[in-house]
Write a structure and sequence with these properties.
heterodimer; A: about 300 residues; alpha/beta; Rossmann fold; Alpha-Beta Plaits; 2 domains; seven-stranded mixed β-sheet; four-stranded antiparallel β-sheet; about 30% strand; globular; B: about 550 residues; mainly alpha
């Protein structure tokens, strides 16, 4: 459904994207992961014919994204990264305006979306909070039941309840065999919704694969606070432990874990533990550790 | 240094405006002073100038107009107050604009009190106005030297200071109003209206006897009490101090209110001033049948409906008023003809017969009408450019609307508004001529009104084309510069004895004097063709460019 090959875009002498090549099948929910400024939005804006590629090709449903942008947009729903709309229109007016520009939509479905995301459509766009602005653009992207949804960080600013509703909406789209291209820098969001992912860094696609492939790059941190001082070497070399640090208070240890934490938990149980906290590192951390620290050149890995 | 605190950062933001407005306004006066000698080459010409100026005393008080300083002060009259537009627009923006963008939240997260933040911004506005005043003073003094005027450098400085002070009053009004409005545009728009009202109030005492008390309500009246460039008139220290005091009071009240209200909210009005809940307009949940949402064209038209209404009122009202004024000054004109053979000869050459001398005077006044219409389209072209730059076209262009259609629809809406304003101006002029008894050729009035349309569309099309390459601020600056340049080429070029080839650079040359001589067909078609060409270039560029980069 979406195909790019050698897609390159530069902003004068500044980097945009270089040789991005990816394929998204019909009915697939494809996650497009990358840290801030990695080139996700540039790729998406080229797909939406808002930017003209310097080199390479981008096609949606077999049509060229630049040459045949109008028929492509009939098939597409789009959520931009930074929604900007007429501040003096109400949410309801914006939705009806875009409905008209799309040649009309099912009003019943539109009302249903408004209700599901709990949007007050009588307020002006400028009066909306960030989350409510996001709801308006989400509804306008979904309301005409497009074959392809191109979503650039669509849940930014949404509260957990609405994020959950968004996940349901994406699931329904997937169940109906429609395609979603979802850009995000939140690993867990991509894990929840996507079947395949592409990872972009400094404008280059460094990895494309199934969602399970994420696990080998996913690393999380555990901080354990003991009653007494425990030497870091007690955890060195344990299965799944990538890195161990002793914290300045002398009683805490921070571990970077990749894979199972079973060995760490068992080792910790040998001592008196006050607390144990685990958190997911940011995608930026992952990229820094996996793709910069070891100095490995980022070549695209396509994993089946 | 420029980013070391809020004051310097704000001042840095104003650097282009200080230079642009300071030099621009200063040059206006410089050109008039430099061209003064060519206007009074003979005693008859000097006498004609004095008599003619008295015919327009309603507009600006003519004092010593046969001197360079007196003539420059009279010539610009209220026009010089254009500088207050920057002041009021900035006054509306410095606090409310930051709130609209959301950047005020960040500013107020710094360890600085609200009052201190607001005062730093305000101080930057005042210093910017003083900077503009200084640049104006330097150019006025230079112009005075060229014209061998009698005023001193101190007089020039006082002229610049007086202008800065009256502008500061309007900045203060806008700043105060912005505490009560949710948008900076509303505060600036209201203050713009008050500026216009102030100018009219100041005129009242010159037209209606014993009505000076009405004019005293206007800040412009106190500005006009000081005329440092007019020999023997001098400066009214009390009036200048009064302007400073009012400006300080208004700004102080605004800062006091800002320190006490919610950021992003407005000052709570007394209950009797608030709309009742029943009176508040409630938008239907999903207004599927709203006419203004049916297409890009209708939406674009709805967007400029308010502006179109106000500009129509202003432009058509001005044209009709001119007709009435010409009728009222008819007897004065008759005596001018008797006392000034040179002027009589000049008008007879222009009009052919004495019988249409009213039309000749009206034609001269009517020259301002296309300039006003072009100013309207410059603002609308700026809006197109701003919409693209601020990302408001992104979602629109993600719908199955070709770029060509989106741009054409926006331009078509602007064309509709322009035609509407021109047609209403024509009707108002004709109605005023019938009601006041001024005999005007209906065909010529139609030609004068309708041939403004290509002029207005030309500058709008240039704005659309420039927006393909330039940022909004530069685009608007370029258009404003072009408009000012064309105006001065056409209206001061002949005084300066510029060659015909130079005068042809301005589109006003091709507009001609349709109120006297009917439609300049070739010129109008030429301007229209230039507008179409500029639009074609703009469209070609827009269809191929990266959006919002």
């Amino acid at each position: 459904m979406i195909e790019t090959a050698g897609l390159t875009k530069r902003y004068g002498d500044k980097r945009g994207i270089t040789d991005v090549a990816l394929t998204v099948e019909e009915g697939e929910v494809f996650g497009f992961l990358g840290p801030n400024g990695s080139g996700k939005t540039t790729t998406i804006r080229v797909l939406m014919a808002l930017l003209r590629a310097d080199r390479g090709s981008a096609r949606i449903a077999g049509m060229d994204c630049w040459q045949q942008s109008v028929p492509i947009k009939r098939l597409t729903g789009y959520v931009p990264g930074e929604p900007s709309l007429d501040p003096n229109l109400t949410g309801g007016q914006i939705l009806e305006y875009f409905a008209h520009l799309r040649g009309g939509v099912d009003q019943g479905y539109l009302k249903q979306l408004v209700k599901r995301l709990d949007l007050d459509t009588s307020r002006k766009f400028r009066q909306y909070s960030t989350g409510n602005k996001r709801k308006v653009v989400l509804i306008q992207a979904f309301m005409h039941r497009p074959r392809v949804l191109i979503l650039d960080e669509p849940t930014n600013g949404l509260d957990p309840l609405n994020q959950q509703e968004f996940d349901h909406m994406v699931k329904e789209v997937r169940d109906e065999g429609r395609t979603v291209f979802l850009s995000s820098h939140v690993l867990s969001e991509v894990e929840r919704n996507c079947t395949r992912v592409g990872i972009i860094r400094t404008g280059e696609l460094v990895r494309v694969g199934g969602i399970h492939e994420l696990k080998d790059i996913k690393r999380y941190e555990i901080t354990i606070v003991f009653t007494d001082s425990v030497p870091p070497k007690a955890f060195d070399g344990l299965e799944g432990v990538a890195h161990v640090d002793a914290l300045p208070d002398g009683r805490s240890i921070r571990l970077a874990i990749q894979g199972s934490a079973d060995a760490v938990i068992k080792a910790a149980a040998q001592h008196r533990v006050i607390s144990l906290t685990s958190h997911e590192p940011s995608l930026e951390d992952i990229f820094l550790r996996y793709y910069q620290a070891d100095g490995r050149a980022p070549e695209t890995e396509h994993v089946a | 240094m420029w980013l070391s605190n809020i004051f310097f950062k704000t001042l840095r933001d104003f650097r282009v405006a200080i230079v642009g407005w300071g030099i621009g306004t200063g040059l206006l006066v410089y050109i008039v002073l430099a061209s003064f000698a060519s206007l009074v080459t003979t005693p008859q010409a000097r006498a004609s100038l004095v008599t003619l100026a008295h015919g327009f005393s309603w507009l600006a008080q003519p004092i010593a107009v046969d001197t360079p300083g007196g003539y420059a002060t009279f010539k610009y009259g209220p026009v010089i107050l254009l500088m207050a537009i920057w002041a009021l627009s900035t006054g509306g923006r410095i606090i409310r604009g930051e709130e609209e963008r959301g950047s005020m939240d960040v500013l107020l997260s710094l360890p600085e009190g609200r009052t201190r933040v607001a005062l730093q911004k305000l101080a930057a506005v005042w210093l910017a106005l003083l900077g503009m005043g200084l640049l104006i003073a330097l150019l006025v003094f230079a112009g005075g030297r060229t014209a061998h005027a009698s005023f001193t450098f101190i007089d020039s400085l006082l002229f610049g200071l007086n202008l800065a002070l009256v502008s500061a009053v309007f900045a203060g009004i806008a700043l105060l109003l912005s505490q009560f409005t949710r948008e900076r545009g509303s505060a600036s728009g209201l203050t713009g209206g008050l500026l216009l009202v102030s100018i009219v109030l100041d005129m009242v005492h010159r037209v209606i006897p014993n009505a000076e008390w009405v004019s005293r309500l206007s800040p412009v009246y106190y500005y006009n009490l000081s005329r440092p460039l007019v020999p023997g008139y001098g400066t009214n220290g009390g009036a200048m101090l009064g302007l400073l005091t009012v400006s300080l009071l208004l700004s102080g009240a605004a800062v006091w209110l800002f320190a006490r209200r919610d950021v992003g909210g407005t000052v709570r009005l007394p209950a009797w001033l608030r709309l009742s809940r029943a009176a508040e307009r409630r938008e239907p949940m999903l207004p599927a049948n709203d006419w203004s949402l049916r297409s890009v064209y209708w939406r674009s038209l709805a967007m400029i409906l308010g502006a179109t209404s106000w500009w129509t009122l202003g432009i058509a009202g001005f044209a009709a008023w001119m007709v009435v004024v010409v009728k009222q000054t008819e007897s004065q004109l008759a005596s001018i003809y008797q006392s000034s053979p040179a002027l009589k000869g000049f008008l007879s050459t222009l009009s052919g017969t004495n019988a249409i001398s009213n039309a000749a005077i009206l034609s001269a006044l009517f020259a301002f009408v296309p300039v006003a219409l072009m100013a309207f389209t410059v603002i609308q072209a700026n809006r197109w450019s701003a919409d693209e730059e601020e990302g408001r076209l992104e979602l629109l262009l993600a719908t199955p609307q070709p770029r060509l259609r989106v741009m054409a629809a926006r331009f078509a809406a602007l064309t509709t508004s322009t035609i509407f304003i021109a047609v209403v101006t024509m009707i108002a002029t004709l109605a005023a001529s019938v009601l006041s008894g001024v005999r005007l050729d209906g065909g010529n009035v139609a030609a004068a009104s309708l041939s403004m349309i290509p002029l207005a569309l030309l500058i709008a099309a240039l704005g659309y084309a420039f927006s393909g390459w330039f940022k909004t601020a530069f685009d608007t600056g370029l258009l404003t510069f072009l408009l000012a340049m064309w105006f001065f080429i056409s209206f001061l070029g002949p005084d300066l004895k510029w060659p015909d080839a130079s005068l042809r650079v301005s589109p006003f040359y091709y507009y001609g004097t349709p109120l006297l001589h009917g439609l300049a067909v070739e010129g109008t078609v030429g301007i229209l063709a230039a507008a179409v060409l500029a639009l074609a270039v703009g469209t070609f560029r827009f269809a191929r460019k990266d959006i919002a980069v």
